[in-house]
Each structure stands twice: as structure tokens, then as C-alpha cells.
Amino acid sequence: MEDIVLQVKDVTIGDKKSGYSIVDKVNIEVKKQQIVGIVGESGCGKSMTSLAIMQLMPVNIAIKEGQILFSGEELTALKEKELRKVRGKDISMIFQEPVRALHPLHKVGKQIEESLKIHTNLSKEDRKKQTISLMKSVGIPDAEMRYDQYPHQLSGGLNQRIMIAMAIAADPSLIIADEPTTALDVTIQAQILQLLRSLRERRGVSIILISHDLAVICENCDYVYVMYCGQIVEEADVRTFFQSPKHPYTQALIQASPDPEKKIDQLMAIKGTVPSIENIPEGCRFAERCPHKTERCTKVEPKLYEQNDGTKVKCFLFEEGR
Ligand SMILES: Nc1ncnc2c1ncn2[C@@H]1O[C@H](COP(=O)(O)OP(=O)(O)OP(=O)(O)O)[C@@H](O)[C@H]1O
Ligand SMILES: [Mg+2]
Q: For residue 277, which atom of ligand 1 is closest to its CA?
């Protein structure tokens, strides 16, 4: 038990006004030093799930049910002031577009230092030393000179490294990276992912890596969750996942992708569309697009059935286990 860092337990996230659920009874577990992937089409609820872990959802969105446990402590029960200590110190986030997350008018070095100011007792002088050492550790050349620069003076890749330095400044045990490389070109992408993997080795952090990109998931994760329309439809260790994808949705994703570099949204060879949250059908949410659909699928919702190889699949084809 003690190697479990994060447990998302039966979490449902909904719109306060309309009452519609955006994320439905999601369970996710992250172990120490594990890199866990979340993959799924645009709008399926990946970002909302990760924002819920940090309790940073938009104001109109709330967790309706479920618990989020970090090292056994229930985050959902904490007050805003206590949560502020958790953010950055225990869990930190890296987003897709560093330029939007960084303050345009503050020097990048100072922005990293801010994290140290909030979460450590270091003196001003030591904070600067520590910042420069962090910048070097994430592969920023000429760190002393870069310290005094502004985000617009840095490339996208360097700004993402600044974001990563900020994220690790207070030595968190979990980093949530939401499409951290989507805005970067392929070479820089590979370097940033390599850096994230090295943080797991060097610092023992766990990482949740959210991506549209099956190749990114395949190359970087130990374990993967597939989301479809607000629900987890399959979870498996990454090798089993790519060797024997089980859910018809997952199979379609992988088979429709002769080129693993392709992003999910570019290869939607699967007929039909994702139901909208105002119009969730009874039964399986994928049924309308599923080649194996039976009448039962349109009436009864399947559970996540555990298989002999440890995979869990939300589909009646796997009800008896395989
Ligand atoms: N502020 C909001 N108010 C109401 N609904 C929202 C809000 N933000 C997002 N949603 C809805 O929540 C659902 C999940 O969105 P989310 O951003 O988590 O998807 P995602 O899987 O991260 O997609 P992407 O891959 O495009 O980043 C979507 O249907 C979206 O329309
Ligand atoms: Mg998102």
C-alpha cells in the first residue's frame, strides 16, 4: 500500500449549473516512480480529471462524488489554504503551452524562485543559487544568463524546461503533465519527454502523462488508462496494452493507426461521433460506434471487467474474463 502515491476513487465531476457529468466514476491509481498515461480523444475529460486532482477546476465545475487520496490523505476534504501547500510542494503541473502559464513580464529565474519562496525556508541568496542549479538540471544552457531573461526571449522548448524547473523546485512526489509537448516540434518533444523520464530516475517522482499521442504513451508510460466520453474504458500495463488491446474503442485506435506518430484525433476512422454530455445514452457510451454492439449494450452499462492478464475492460465481450 505504501507505494501508492495517488488514488482517484470513483470521482464524478460535473457542471454545477446544468448538473451534467463531465467525468463519470473515474478510478486512477499512481504508484511511486510510475509514469501513468491517460489517453483519449479531445473532450473526453483528461484535463478535467487532472485539474480535479489539484482542485483547480473552472469555477462552474465541481467534484460531485468520490475521493482523491494523496499519500493516503484525502485532498477532497482539504480547505483552500491547505490545498495551496499541496500544490507545487507535493503535486505540480506542467501544461501544454508554457508561454501562457508563465508571466510575460517577470524574469524566468524569478518565476522559478517564487516556488522556492513559497515552499522552502532558503535565504534569498540560496534561492538564486538553487534556481540556477535547477535550470542546469533541466538542461538549460547558460543558466546564469537565462536567469535574467523574459519568456519571450526563450524558445518554446526552453520555456517548457523553465516550467519543468518550476514544477520540480519544491521537490514534489507527483507531476501531472497535460500534453506537455504537443506545442513543440518533434525533436524538442523527444528531449522534453526524455527529461521527464530522467526526473523519475533522479528524483523518484511519479508522473501522470496526458496525451493524444499513442506513440508518446507507448514510449514513456508504464501503465495506461484510456478515456472515452468521461469514463475509463480500459486500463493496462503498457506492454499488454499495445500487444493485446481489448476494448473495441482501443482496438480501433491502435489498428487505425498504421503510423504510431499520428495523433488520435487525426485518425478517426471510427464511424460516428462521441455522445455529448447533455445526451449520454443508456448502456455503453461507445455502443453507437461499436462493430460488436448488441441490444444489451444499448440498454445496460458494462462494468470494468478484470482480465487474467490484469487488464480491465469496460465491455461485455470481456465480461467472463480472458
Ligand atoms: N469550463 C467548462 N465548463 C463546462 N464544461 C467544460 C468546461 N471546460 C471543459 N468542459 C467540457 O468538459 C469536457 C472535458 O473537457 P477536457 O478539457 O477535460 O477534455 P480533454 O480530454 O482534456 O480534451 P483535449 O484533448 O482537447 O485537451 C468537454 O466536453 C468540455 O466541453
Ligand atoms: Mg485537455
A: 29
